[in-house]
Automatic annotation (TrEMBL):
<dbReference type="GO" id="GO:0005829">
    <property type="term" value="C:cytosol"/>
</dbReference>
<keyword id="KW-0963">Cytoplasm</keyword>
<dbReference type="InterPro" id="IPR004384">
    <property type="entry name" value="RNA_MeTrfase_TrmJ/LasT"/>
</dbReference>
<dbReference type="GO" id="GO:0002128">
    <property type="term" value="P:tRNA nucleoside ribose methylation"/>
</dbReference>
<dbReference type="InterPro" id="IPR029028">
    <property type="entry name" value="Alpha/beta_knot_MTases"/>
</dbReference>
<dbReference type="Pfam" id="PF00588">
    <property type="entry name" value="SpoU_methylase"/>
</dbReference>
<comment type="subunit">
    <text>Homodimer.</text>
</comment>
<protein>
    <recommendedName>
        <fullName>tRNA (cytidine/uridine-2'-O-)-methyltransferase TrmJ</fullName>
        <ecNumber>2.1.1.200</ecNumber>
    </recommendedName>
</protein>
<dbReference type="GO" id="GO:0106339">
    <property type="term" value="F:tRNA (cytidine(32)-2'-O)-methyltransferase activity"/>
</dbReference>
<feature type="region of interest" description="Disordered">
    <location>
        <begin position="288"/>
        <end position="311"/>
    </location>
</feature>
<dbReference type="GO" id="GO:0160206">
    <property type="term" value="F:tRNA (cytidine(32)/uridine(32)-2'-O)-methyltransferase activity"/>
</dbReference>
<keyword id="KW-0819">tRNA processing</keyword>
<keyword id="KW-0949">S-adenosyl-L-methionine</keyword>
<dbReference type="InterPro" id="IPR001537">
    <property type="entry name" value="SpoU_MeTrfase"/>
</dbReference>
<dbReference type="InterPro" id="IPR029026">
    <property type="entry name" value="tRNA_m1G_MTases_N"/>
</dbReference>
<keyword id="KW-0489">Methyltransferase</keyword>
<keyword id="KW-0808">Transferase</keyword>
Amino acid sequence: MYMDRWSKGRSGNESSFNFRAICAREAPNEDEGNEGMAGTNSERELLTEGPAIILAYPQLGENIGMVARAMANFGLSELRLVNPRDGWPNEKARSAASRADHVIDNAKLYESLEEAIADLNFVYATTARDRDGFKPVRSPIVAARELRTRFRGGEAIGIIFGRERTGLTNEEVSLADEIVTFPVNPAFASLNLAQAVLLMSYEWLKTGMASEDETSFQAIAQRPATKEQLQGLVDHVEEALEARNYFRPANKKPKLMENLRAVLTRPSFTESEIQVLRGIISSLDRFTRENPRGSGAPDRGRKAQSGGDDD
């Protein structure tokens, strides 16, 4: 029996998990815990629960591997294979899984679809085609919510995906409790097997989040600049431009400064951004292309070029 192990989210619901608490931990050093692959981190909690993904008579090992990767992306781990054409285990599948080894290593092999779903309480069949039957047809969002509800109730659940080229037969669809179909272009409705699994896996993960608005990380909170700091930036720019005789003719300076002030105060700068901009202006004041930063003070550079002080 499945057990829901998600930690309490902000809502206090024990059946939801706090996505940010799991994902937004202090990032490791570049070479620590990420196994050399962007987006992976072995030091973070690995989500491994949810519906079984059942692939009915899959053909290519590469597609099975990409399915495993999609499952791992969204916290699923139970992969069931019904008589894969190219046999199992399959090294092409492992390679395409991009280190989703926990899914590949624990994949279960079955001779028939009936055998693969025998121990499950509730199963969806995925299809892009209209079926002449009486089974309810759900969208991915509704289907994922139903799966989550049943999962929390302790039921064993699964989703069936058909062959890459022909999908599921009517007889195979009849083995499921309900149908799930994706809102796609009706003139081009065929999805890659891994894409279909990824879409359902994504909807599944969302149903367990404390809030669908949560993200795995956020921008660092920064204090907005005060009006005094903004005025300091404007004054600094004005001084630098005045020294370079920018305001010509002089009678146009008030209008130019009005426009400049509007530009510099529009973006709602933070304190750190003001510091960066003023640092840039100070650098432009002190250094030139002929005497860049690191070559010595500008006045010393000019003396060196002229041969020293005049006697």
